Amino acid sequence: MISSKLPNVGTTIFTTMSQLAAQVGAINLSQGFPDFDGPQALRDAVAYHVANGHNQYPPMTGLPALREQVGHKLARFYGVTVDTEREITITPGATQAIFCAIQAVIRPGDEVIVFDPTYDSYEPSVALAGGRCVHVPLAPATFAIDWQRLSDAIGPRTRMIMLNSPHNPSGAVFSGADLDQLAALIGERDIYVVSDEVYEHLIYDGVAHASVLACEALYRRAFVVSSFGKTYHVTGWKTGYVVAPPALTAELRKVHQFVSFCGVTPIQWALADFMAAHPEHLDELPGFYQAKRDLFCDLLQGSRFRFTRTPGTYFQLVDYAQIRPDLNDVDMSLWMTKEHGVACIPVSVFYNEPVREQRLVRLCFAKREETLREAAAKLCAI
Ligand code: PMP
Ligand code: GLN
């Protein structure tokens, strides 16, 4: 018998719900991915680079042209200048970047603070490094940080705090003031920060994303992670990046070079070309997804689900307490998928200790208009 290093890990909820949706023919609003393609010019660029000899290993740190484009973007959006040689690393997806950052600094016995509900990859990554997650719940309705609980959770073994804004699954966003408050709380303690900002451009109602990159007191101890998959509607390309001060980047790269060594060459070339030619894509993205959020929410006004419009990400939480208060959210998700043809994600799976009586499921609105209309019609009929 093998003794598992991750005895509590099974198949992820995203795989489970997507498989169930396919099996029963439900509209899949569960796992977060668009049902439309990324820009034609971007896809053409990959084909071009595959056909034109860009098929061998790129530099371990990422293609210089792509790191430069990321550098331009960071200057334009966050007003920061980073050394693209020593502070930016291109990775095969944000998940790998987060894993490498954790492996680079967490040792057996270290504690890592995560905010619940928390993204599913963090805890196994910490466990494999020999660390232990300390779960600090966000406030139940607003998903804001409970500063007292956070302060109480920080102790001598705390080595890292994981941030995620805009936040999956709630869509909540941190403000610049939140980041300043966190920096003040950490003070001079020897604590690293991983800031998962994969939804940095999916933020609505004119609000600007507060990046850890723009908060000097946090950035000097931080690994800031993003994903081209979300930003360019190509989740299956699994390409992301991590920005960290030179000393942290050096340690991260020691891990990265033996986990994957590098990202995928033609995809990096294509992203570099596309970012240079179409900077407006990033300016248009919040409006593009806000229109989808608003269409979907307008349609759901006619349903018995209760919700407030999500401020970020492409996820909308809905409360079903008026519909099936007797069902927990896992059973509700199964019921909605099998009986009503719309697959969703139960929120309790993102918690160490689920909130009692919370009746929330997550719906992904990164979908074509006809998909959203068809799904909303089914949801309104429940
Ligand atoms: N972090 C969060 C919060 C996510 O929702 C996701 C996406 N699915 C990731 C990380 C992983 O991104 P990637 O697909 O680039 O590994
Ligand atoms: N991040 C995606 C979500 O939250 C899922 C990615 C995955 O399946 N690993 O739905």
Features:
three-stranded antiparallel beta sheet, binds glutamine, seven-stranded mixed beta sheet, binds 4'-deoxy-4'-aminopyridoxal-5'-phosphate, globular, Aspartate Aminotransferase, domain 1, alpha/beta, Aspartate Aminotransferase, domain 2
Structure description:
With 382 residues, this protein is of the alpha/beta class. The chain folds into two domains: 13-31 and 281-380, Alpha-Beta Complex (Aspartate Aminotransferase, domain 1), CATH 3.90.1150; 40-277, Aspartate Aminotransferase, domain 2 (3-Layer(aba) Sandwich). 41% of the residues lie in helices and 14% in strands. It is built from 14 helices and twelve strands. The chain has helices spanning 13-24, 40-51, 64-78, 94-105, 122-128, 147-153, 176-186, 216-219, 228-231, 246-259, 265-277, 280-300, 329-340, 369-380; strands spanning 27-28, 88-91, 111-116, 132-137, 158-164, 192-196, 222-227, 240-243, 315-319, 342-343, 345-346, 360-364. It has a seven-stranded mixed sheet, with helices on both faces. Strand 5 (158-164), helix 7 (176-186) and strand 6 form a beta-alpha-beta unit. Helix 1 packs parallel to helix 13, helix 2 (40-51) packs across helix 11 (265-277) and helix 3 packs across helix 11 (265-277). The longest helix has 21 residues, at 280-300. The protein is globular, with a radius of gyration of 20 Å. 46% of the residues are buried. The mean pLDDT is 97. It binds 4'-deoxy-4'-aminopyridoxal-5'-phosphate and glutamine. 4'-deoxy-4'-aminopyridoxal-5'-phosphate binds at residues 32, 93-95, 119, 164, 168, 196, 198, 227, 229, 235, 238, 240. It holds the Pfam family Aminotran_1_2. InterPro entries: Aminotransferase_I/II_large, Kynurenine-oxoglutarate_AT, PyrdxlP-dep_Trfase, PyrdxlP-dep_Trfase_major, PyrdxlP-dep_Trfase_small. Residues 27-379 form the Aminotransferase class I/classII large domain. One of its GO terms (molecular function) is transaminase activity. Keywords: Aminotransferase, Pyridoxal phosphate, Transferase.
